[in-house]
Design brief:
The chain is an all-alpha fold and about 100 residues long. It has helices at about 1-35, 70-90. It is built from 2 helices and no strands.
Amino acid sequence: MVDEALHSAYQAFLQASHVTSLVSASIVLLAAIIVGFALPHIAPPQAHPSQAPAPHEPGTVHDIAQRTEAGAQAAAAELEDDYPAEAAEEYVARDPRRDPPDSQA
């Protein structure tokens, strides 16, 4: 009697697993059909040939404002002059109560 119950339980389990696998396979097949036919075709982007850069004009630098070399050198010199003070402000924590902005350290 126990063997008969075990055998019928095993058969029920086996049948249920077959039904489950068929349902899963049909869902996958349906999803593949939907993806294959219902989704729009997307073409990958195409690379267009690049254009050569504009020829270099003597006396200018490659800048949007097209500044002259002398203007660029003056701006660089100004940045170099201000750099030590700006770096000190960034690296040294100053207490405004202890070190007023006008004091010379």
